[in-house]
Amino acid sequence: MLDSDVETSDARRSPPPPGGTPRPRPRRRRWASLGVALALVIGASGGTYYALRGGESSTPQASAALPTVPVVRVDMISVRNVDGTLEHAGSYTVLGGGGRITWLPEAGDVIRRGERVYGVDGHGVPLFYGTTPFWRDLRQGMTGRDVRQLERNLKALGYGRDHGMTVDREFTWATARAVMDWQDDLNVPRTGEVRMDAVTVQPGPIRVTALNAVLGAQAGGTVLTASGTERVITVKLPVNDQRLARKGSEVRVTLPGGKTATGRVTSIGRVASAGATNAQSQTGEGTRNATVAVHVTLDGVKSAGGLDGAPATVGFSGVKHRGVLAVPINALLASGEGEYAVKVVEADGTSRDVPVRLGVFDGDNVEVSGDLAPGMRVEVPRS
Questions:
Q1: Is residue 285 a contact partner of residue 337, using CB atoms and an 8 Å limit?
Q2: What span, in angstroms and rounded, lies between the C-alpha atoms of 299 and 303?
Q3: Peptidoglycan binding-like domain spans which residues (predicted)?
């Protein structure tokens, strides 16, 4: 952190608490105006440098006893922050296969492989993982991809090992024995055959989002809807910034309450959504406002807690600037419209205002250039 070597202009102070430089507080010189100006610069610069018209203050000034931090030379990466929404990935529909519904889960329940999704005629309909629903009843002698999907699930649940079942495309005697063991545990007739409506197939674990049926109703049509269990952040990224999103790339995520986490880009939409009115379409503004959907997965699911549908901010890394000078953002002084300076404190306690040009913003720090050198100390507000 840039503020790890903080001292006052009169005497060295203890380092600040972990967590980095405090957010900017009012400075003696138009700090409120600086906050507004910086917001405009950050939103519009994207790494563009802004030059000052003013010169360096020529008369040394006695410095107030404010904390100081060193100017450092570091590598910095510009960050583009985009708002998004934290939600569960995927949307799935569970269809009933007939019979009368005798048990239903609750909204929010998480259901995994082998667990019942709903009950019909007094027995459970369990969840299998796969990509294709069963479209036919399966029995010994059959072959096909659906047989392999059945055997893969049976093996994952611990069935078939005692009978030498192999996961392939053939429904053998060993497969039938594995089915009978599974049926025995479900407390259903041991037929060795699997009806196509005996299980529901989904890509993975599901989280119940809504019930579309009631107890006692016929299990036809939609029984419930569900999502996946993985939490993702959906971001509408402007197409002009699409180059910042690369599948697998790491991003910074800020959750409600200021908690931060890391995440990775898992998918990038291929179709842009303009979201423009007729007037915008005629003027071309709709094209400029076009966005693509980007999905980000949090590295640690626990980082998101129990939040769902909450706002989140995703920081996409841009151009890396190597070996540049940097100071905390709250070291900047507004010296004119669009012009900034820092107050350099000399070893004898005197100070002078040095105009700076701004580069990229990275977290609480900003790239600066001007009559500065590494190790010089600049004033920052008191914490």
A1: no
A2: 8
A3: 144-194
C-alpha–C-alpha distance, residues 237 and 140, integer Å: 52
pLDDT range class, residue 114, cuts 50, 70, 90: very high
pLDDT(8) > 80: no
Q: Please report, as a single letter, which amino acid is at residue 273.
A: S
Query: What's the mean pLDDT in 166-173?
Result: 97
Which CATH number do you get for residue 328?
Answer: 2.40.420.20
80 DSSP β-pair partners: 316
The residues, any chain, with a CB within 8 Å of residue 24's CB and separated by 6 or more, are 31, 34, 35, 329, 330, 381
- Find the mean pLDDT for residues 251-266: 88
Torsion of CA 178, 179, 184, 190, to 10 degrees: -120
Amino acid at 225: T
Domain end, chosen from 316, 331, 357, is at 316
